[in-house]
Structure formats: C-alpha cells, structure tokens
Amino acid sequence: MQTKLLFAISALLVAAPAAQADKTPRLHPTEAACVFYESSGQMMNGTITHCHRDHAYEQYEIQNTEIGFAGITQTQNQHTITIGEWIYAIDLSTNSGTKTKNPFYQGIVDALDDSSSEDMTAAFMDAMAMTATGQTKMIANTQCSVYNSSMMGTVCMTDGGLMLEQSFMGMTQTATSVSIGDGGDDANYALYQTVPITEGPDLSNGINVQDLMNQMGQQ
C-alpha cells in the first residue's frame, strides 16, 4: 500500500496538463519515447512500462508488479493514462478505473511550456533538488548521467530527460529497453474509453493522502 501510494503521488506530480486554446503544451524535452523497466526491492518486484508522446501531453504507465509487506503479497496490474489535465487509473484485474483532475497542471504549463529542451530538463532537476555526481552510465545501450536527490534518491537521466535508473527507499527501477521516437501503442492511450470510469478524489485543494488510500482500497 505504501509503495502504491508513492507511485500515485509521483504520477500526479509529473502528469501532463490541459491543452491551451491554440496549442498543445510541451512538457518534456523528448517528443516521444518508451522506456521498459525491471523493478526490484524488498517491497516490490516486476515490470513497468512508461511511454509518452506529444512531448508528454499524453502518457501512460503499465505496472505488472508484486508488492509484499509484512508477509502479505499483492499482485498489481495497473494502467495509468494521462491525457491533458486528466489522470485515469485503471485496474486491469477488475477492468475498472477512476478519473482524477491533476491540480498541478497550470503550474507545470507556466513553468515548462515555452522552455527550450535544455531549460526544461534543468527546471525538472532543480524542482527535484538533483545534484550531479559527475558519473555516467550505459543502461539499455543508452548513456545517462547520475544524480542524487533527497526527493528521488539516486537517478540516472539522459540529456533528453529520460530516467533510466532510480534507487529510492530500498527499491531499484532499471531500464531494460529504450525506444526514442516511439510513443507506444495507440490502444494503451485509449484504454480508459473501454472500461467503466468513476470519479476519483477531488485534489483541487491539494493531495489528501487518506482520500487516495481510500480510493486505492476500492480498486
């Protein structure tokens, strides 16, 4: 439950905002990409796929994981889609989901939309309090630079703003494959249209952790 909550809050913080009247906001320096991860740790093991297109105005993440805590193990098959200001959290085991409005969208648009790719990456690193270590790695045949962050742990980021590795709170997420220029399967962006969707918690006044936990417990 704690791990699920961490990923839910992270998704809200990085989710893409609503389109302006005349254009789609640019929210990531890389126009389209898919990164496939292996996740391992004391609490969670499995695979995670993250894809985005239109500079992350549209994105999805698929988690096939097994979470264990205090001797209890739970399998998750979670599909999260972000399109504009809306976040759809779909539980594939029940073929149902929730729809939540991202309360951070306008601030993200204001901070990133008119930035260059370099400024966009720098703004994200500054927001996450990331400090360069001077080390580089080759992960999934792609070079990345290592940073330390009190908010994200140790991460390895490409110049194009793709995270290839993260170690945080005893968990490690490492890319096994990177596909730049490929935004993923169209069907994965439209999945929310094929399952019953209910309203998620109202986050307009900020994140209410208890509401999130209650919502997750219903899935």
Count of DSSP-assigned helices: 5
Question: Ends: how far apart?
Answer: 12 Å
Instruction: Decide which structural class fits the backbone.
Output: alpha+beta
Order of helices and strands: HEEEEEEHHEEEEEHEH
Q: Uncertain segments of ≥5 residues (pLDDT<50)?
A: 1-21, 207-219
Query: How many β-strand runs?
Result: 12
Strand order of the largest sheet: 7-8-9-10-11-1-2-3-4-5-6-12
**Largest sheet composition:** 12 strands, mixed
Cα shape? globular
- Percent of sequence in beta strands: 35-45%
State the helical fraction. Answer: 10-25%
Q: Kindly report the average pLDDT value.
A: 82
Gyration radius, rounded:
17 Å
Structural overview:
The chain is of the alpha+beta class. The protein has helices at residues 2-14, 105-112, 117-127, 186-190, 209-217, and strands spanning 33-41, 44-53, 58-69, 72-83, 86-91, 96-101, 130-139, 142-149, 153-157, 163-168, 171-180, 197-199. The chain has a twelve-stranded mixed beta sheet with strand order 7-8-9-10-11-1-2-3-4-5-6-12. It is globular. The protein starts with a helix and ends with a helix.
Q: Can you give me a brief rundown of this structure?
A:
This protein is an alpha+beta fold and 219 residues long. It is built from five helices and twelve strands. It has helices at 2-14, 105-112, 117-127, 186-190, 209-217; strands spanning 33-41, 44-53, 58-69, 72-83, 86-91, 96-101, 130-139, 142-149, 153-157, 163-168, 171-180, 197-199.
